[in-house]
Amino acid sequence: MVLKSVQGVREWLEAPVAEAKMAGRTRLDALRGAAARVTTPLLPDDYLHLINPLWSARELRGRIVSVRKETTDAVTLVIKPGWGFDFTFTPGQYIGIGVLVDGRWHWRSYSLTSPPNWTDPGSRSRRLISIAVKAMPEGFLSSHLVNGVPEGTVVRLAAPQGGFVLPEPPPAKVLFLTAGSGITPVMGMLRTMDRRAAARPGPGGWPDVVHVHSARTAEDVMFATELRDLHDRRPSFTAHLHLTGARGKFALTGLDELFPDWRERETWACGPLAMLDDIEKHWAAAGLSDHLHIERFEVERSAVGEGGTVTFARSGRSAEIDGATSLLQAGEDSGVQMPFGCRMGICQTCVVTLADGRVRDLRNGAEHQAGEKVQTCISAAAGDCTLEV
Amino acid sequence: MAITDIKAFAHLTAADIETLGQELDTIRRDVEQSLGERDAKYIRRTIRAQRTLEMAARATLFGSRNRWAWGAGVAMLSVAKIIENMELGHNISHGQWDWMNDPEIHSTSWEWDMTGPSAQWQRAHNYSHHMYTNVLGKDEDLGFGILRMTRDEQWRPLHLAQPVANLLLAATFEWGIALHDWSIEKQLSDVPRWQLMSEPNRAFGRKIARQVSKDFLIHPALTGPAWKSTLKANATANLVRNLWTYAVIFCGHFPDGAEKFTVDQLVDETRGEWYLRQMLGSANFSAGPVMAFMSGNLCYQIEHHLFPDIPSSRYPEISVRVRELCDKYDLPYTTGSLGKQYLLAFRTIHKLALPDRFLRRTADDAPETSSERKFAGITLPMLPNTEVWTESHWPVDPVTGERRGLRSALAEAKVALKEKARQEKEALREAKQALQDKARHEQQALRETRQALRDKAQEERRVLRRRALRERAIRRVRRRQRAN
Ligand code: FES
To answer: How far is the CA of B119 from the centre of ligand 1 (A)?
Structure first.
């Protein structure tokens, strides 16, 4: 009874922040809720983050504490997350990161390369996360991140997600197949395994892991020193490097020769789409599809197609549309309850979140990326996309 | 009857309206493409300044038992609330800053410091009002359901109370808006009237509870012994904000020159016609940078109605281009000082409190509403008649070579109507003169007749007298003879 009313009071106190919740629940929610009655309609966070941008649980934020060059076109960003970040993610997951460029926030997803609950010894045991970014030839944001995002920059974060993960405990025999920046989620897994092994010394700390990584040249290999070091330190870990510039594409048939026991291994693969398709076929042919985990990165491009398949995530429907049909129209035609008002782009009542893919504003051709909110009445699909409605 | 044919009223052909629409689209695109760091800085700075000001005001009110602290607190809080309401709440909820992708400065998440929930306001304002601007029976902002702002609306005895209703609305403007939005929200979302715990009702109730308890309970309580003066200060700041927002809004759509339209206009309305309706239906007032900022740049109401979702800070530069278009297409650009625009609205409110039989003009040529029929009964010397311009092309001024449209037509109509009125007056005077002359003549005749009668009577009297004298003389002679 008493407990129940305590719970009730607590809920009442937290009500204002529960409604506006964007980041995770924090221990301070009751206090924030109480203070919100003084600051309503704002949250106390809105005043606090005038002092420190990280003092807000309205949404996840972080500050880039260091930028480390990995290769000529790749960097590691070490980020200190603000309130509400869940550090107990699973290695292999990715996070969304929003970076401010020319007044606009741009969203992309990058794999976490740090183990969960990681504290960087160099930075006074604060909990940090890291991601690695490789500049894509026409990638607007990745180039920006690689070529000059200053330390101290405040970024927005989305909670870690993704099913390309290393289970706990890991399987006894593991094969990683990566290429290019596909190494990043695997790096998170390797570091996690290494840390666990350090915490639990003795045999069995490391499972039997083989990592085949392809890169064009030796200079292009991200985390090269770290891989070599792991290879040397951990006897049950084999890092196999394949340079495509000199030797061409890695032939999957070569696995039989190099690692004849590959069929016994639980496999995680991440890299260019063509490579993943090959792997999928190869594993299917061997009847091993169940033991294969694949991560496809969204390819960062600046120009995309016209039209595509629109998926309405919440209503579980989808439609095939051309580049001139509005998303609102497409949704209504396939029986989705779409919010709308003016249907001409002025009222903002039709705004929904673009969960995946890209759409184009029909009025000015501007493109919107996953993570942005779009007006469905004046936007059309620019390739396949998913709406949260 | 308000405007039923926007083409005929505007003196533009369909093709002209089309090109005008394209030119406005170009302005939109240009501005959108140039949005960047500078704009983002502007809004973030504004937010920071507003929050700082509000905090300073609330802190000052701890000492509100002191007269000076009270005054300073009220002033700062009023300004903070005005900025919050106009430049932030109004504009952000319009989606003007959505391009930044910042969830904190986004139309879907911003909540303003007013009684009505932002979401309800958005539906009523962004949708009903902005889409159907000044369309009778569609745009409920026309008089907010309580004032008669055009003589197209039938007079009812209730309207006699307009002067009082107007004052009341001004003082409690946020409540007026909130109730207005709430009823539209219920209407649009089709919830049964009797359903007490409907979502719109709950959202509204929650918002009221928070707003009222903040300004009238929690903040006063926090200042302890100064609670009474803090309470008064908060009430005053809300009042100031209400009066100011009311004035700004009323100057946007109710001064002379901001036209009203009928629903017929909405059938098959093209984008160009929509633009044109926005231009003709709104009015600006002139303001310097400070006043523009304090009005949320709604002194650029025309620009705001053309591009409701473009950052307000860009309206000044857009207005230059819109004015150029108005010159090019010879369209009116309604503006004036804040005082003048408000007085015009004020005059309409009071005039229309009266039944129509006390009003001189009709809904076709009244100062607050006119229609294409205004031009029907008159000949405009410089413009050919309607059929010519709607079918072929624009009339062009033979001397300057400039195209001629509504603005010239309005100016000429004004002259022509004045001339017509003068002629009528002249005719009236002549008729009166003639009548007067006739009366004078008749009087003259009357006088003459009377004179003649009088003369005759005199003559008769004289004859009588003479006869009497003679008879007396005869009698005297006879007496003398008898005596002899
Ligand atoms: S329906 Fe009004 S902006 Fe899309």
So the answer is: 14
